[in-house]
Amino acid sequence: MKITGVQVNICEAEEKYKGIDRMRSCPHGVPGPLKTFGLATIFTDEGINGFYQIRAKDAHLFVEFVKNFLLGTDPFEKDRILGRFRPVIRRGGEWFPFHGYPIRVVGYAECCLWDIIGKALDKPVYKLLGQCRDKIPAYASSKHIPTVKENIEHFKDCISEGFRAFKLHPPSTNWIDPEIRRKISWKLDLQVTREIKRLAGDDVTLLYDPVNTYDREIALIVGKEIESLGFYVYEDPMPTSDIEGNAKLCADLKIPIMLGEQLDDLYKYAELIRGQATDILRCVLERIGGITSAMKLAHLAELHAMKMEPHSFGTQATQFAHLQVMLAMENNDFFESPVPQGTFDTDVIKDTIRIDKEGFVHAPEKPGLGFEVDEKKLKERTVKIIR
Ligand SMILES: [Mg+2]
């Protein structure tokens, strides 16, 4: 099998998204399209195509990358090429240290190629990686809301959707609107946190993610509070690069610290582990080079008796890719779901991921990444093609 072509359809999302406040839904720029997105396609000589959703602004880079490095190659031998873009591997002159492409572009391509491999073998990717489960509990990954009242309403909505776990992004994470941001302090975060705990009782698992907004002092104060309230995990309290500060926080708190979603270099995870700066690893798989990189990270964590919790927040393609990985690893507790469910969905992709009545997501059955593209809708929504 040979790769014969590449294209990105720049799509305008459907009318229903026009009114959505993107900033409240997704402030930190993961591939999460609402108004426009890119549908990437890699073509092969056997008529099997691999798809992924990418940021529209990455389309030109992606097309250039595939043309430069992948045209004419066999998708089944993807790591002959893509392996060289993982910074941690240094094979003499074969390593490409200064290739100039963001690793996420490599990650998009890698996901497309897994889609092709799975479709060629008529198996979902998790079966090829080695399936170990059929379903995973999901948590609602909260919007970034600046008031107590709206947070309470939002929490209730999530529980009525069926979620048994909830991750709070406290008001401090709503940094998009500077007017609102100025009025918010960690004290408001704690007010919201106590209200949410009061409503959740012991029935709902609570996670806490201030998206790296605290300094060392506040991170400890808030950490002690959520620890005493029985929160399950404390994600990204401070900047990930503060290895010493995070190590001290890990030592001072019993609640597990989780770091890693901003990193794009596997080597940095090894640094975090060596520095004892985190209890749990986390990744956005596109950002570290794709599905194979995420599996490497899962294994790295496993060998250090740690969990690895992939960040599955984003488009349908992102959600499906992360779910494939989770189904092939033991050391992960939760699937992260945007809320309300469907927030980032487009009808260009026929399949969606939804929780069942008990709050679980299930293994997709379709081959490859597990979703199908609706060619008719794709045509309708396409405003530009880059190839
Ligand atoms: Mg996070």
Q: Care to describe what's here?
A:
With 387 residues, the protein is of the alpha/beta class. It has 2 domains: 3-123 and 372-386, Enolase-like, N-terminal domain (Enolase-like, domain 1), CATH 3.30.390.10; 128-362, TIM Barrel (Alpha-Beta Barrel), CATH 3.20.20.120. Helix content is 36%, strand content 17%. The chain contains 14 helices and 13 strands. The protein has helices at 22-25, 59-69, 78-82, 103-121, 125-129, 148-161, 178-182, 186-200, 216-228, 243-252, 266-274, 291-303, 316-326, 375-381, and strands spanning 3-12, 36-44, 50-54, 135-141, 165-168, 205-208, 233-235, 257-259, 280-283, 307-310, 335-338, 360-362, 382-386. The strands form 2 sheets. Strands 4, 5, 6, 7, 8, 9, 10, 11 and 12 form a 9-stranded mixed sheet that branches. Strands 3-2-1-13 form a 4-stranded antiparallel sheet. β2 and β3 (50-54) form a beta hairpin. α2 packs across α4, α6 (148-161) packs parallel to α8 (186-200) and α9 packs parallel to α10. It is globular, with a radius of gyration of 20 Å. The protein starts with a strand and ends with a strand. The model is unreliable at 18-33 (pLDDT under 50). The chain binds magnesium ion (MG). Magnesium ion binds at residues 209, 211, 235-236, 261.
Choose one word for the global shape. globular
Number of strands: 13
Q: Per CATH, which architecture of the largest domain? A: Alpha-Beta Barrel
Uncertain stretches of 5 or more adjacent residues? 18-33
In which range does the helix fraction lie?
A: 25-40%
Query: What Rg, in angstroms, do the CA atoms define?
Result: 20 Å
Structural category: alpha/beta
Mind telling me the CATH superfamily name of the largest domain?
Enolase-like C-terminal domain
**Number of domains as seen in the coordinates:** 2
Strand content: 15-25%
Determine the CATH topology of the largest domain.
Answer: TIM Barrel
Instruction: Catalogue the ligands.
Output: magnesium ion
